[in-house]
Design a protein that fits this description.
By secondary structure, the protein is of the alpha+beta class. The chain is built from 4 helices and 13 strands. Strands 6, 7, 8, 9, 12 and 13 form a 6-stranded antiparallel β-sheet that branches. A hairpin with a 6-residue loop joins strand 12 and strand 13.
């Protein structure tokens, strides 16, 4: 059952989402060569608690960290490790905040580079193009997340941009979701279209969803890795990226809860 939020509840989610967004951009600024995934995790927790909020992911049974740190071929659910980032790595930082009884969820992927360095190799230009396609797919998908449209409009937008514009692969086994009182709620929000749009859920004002662009530079297949029952990597070892925002549906333009 899809939980429709009241205007007051959406305001609470906006407050929590603003905290999450502020934390995310601070953590992204801290990404540089030599910084470890665990240091980024500790920074995120410290900042979230400093705002009087709670790390949302710590409420997931069995998960003890504030972020998921997914470096290079790690797709999702990467447990932060002592690994120190290197120039040219990419890392997607997935983070959640629980505030005033509601979750918000957000992910950003960045290339690891020396601060103030504008010199780029051919491979780094290739990576930057890969990341720009994901950002474009997310931004365009948010634009169609309006009351009266359907989940399928979001799914088709993401798939068209990632696959047709970028020539990359949508990860079919991992999808976006509703978000609110629980970190994962109905409806499912796939980044691909596997049925006619009119057979996908209708978007109604008051729905709150996490739109996710989850894609690989190579093939779409993924596997578990590391024996921790969390970490999922691209099967062919290709780079993977994720961009995600929590969004509230209205009669007009959507509200990006995690700007």
């Amino acid at each position: 059952m899809i939980d429709i939020k009241t205007p007051e509840q959406i305001k609470s989610m906006q407050s929590g989402g603003k905290i999450l967004s502020d934390v995310m951009w601070e953590v992204c600024k801290a990404v540089k060569p030599g910084v470890s995934e665990l240091e980024l995790d500790a920074l995120a927790e410290r900042l979230i608690r400093g705002y009087g909020a709670e790390p949302g992911f710590m409420k997931v049974p069995g998960y003890r960290h504030t972020i998921c740190a997914c470096t290079n071929d790690v797709v999702v659910h990467g447990i932060p490790r002592e690994y120190r980032l290197k120039e040219g790595d990419i890392i997607d930082i997935d983070c959640g905040v629980f505030y005033e009884g509601f979750h918000t969820d957000m992910c950003e992927t960045v290339r690891v580079k020396t601060p103030n360095s504008n010199l780029k190799s051919q491979n780094e230009e290739k990576i930057d193009k890969f990341l720009e396609i994901g950002k474009k797919a997310l931004n365009e998908a948010i634009k169609v997340a309006v009351g009266g449209n359907r989940i399928g409009h979001i799914s088709k937008t993401v798939q068209d941009i990632v696959e047709k514009d970028g020539g990359y692969s949508i990860v079919l086994s991992l999808i976006g979701h509703g978000v609110g009182r629980d970190l994962h709620e109905e409806p499912e929000v796939p980044g691909y279209l596997d049925r006619p749009i009119e057979r996908t859920p209708l978007l109604k004002p008051g729905m709150t969803i996490a739109i996710e662009v989850i894609y690989n530079m190579g093939q779409p297949d993924v596997v578990y890795s590391g024996g921790d029952d969390w970490t999922i990597v691209s099967k062919d070892g290709s780079l993977s990226a994720v961009f995600e925002r929590s969004v509230a549906i209205t009669d007009g333009a959507p509200i990006v809860l995690t700007p």
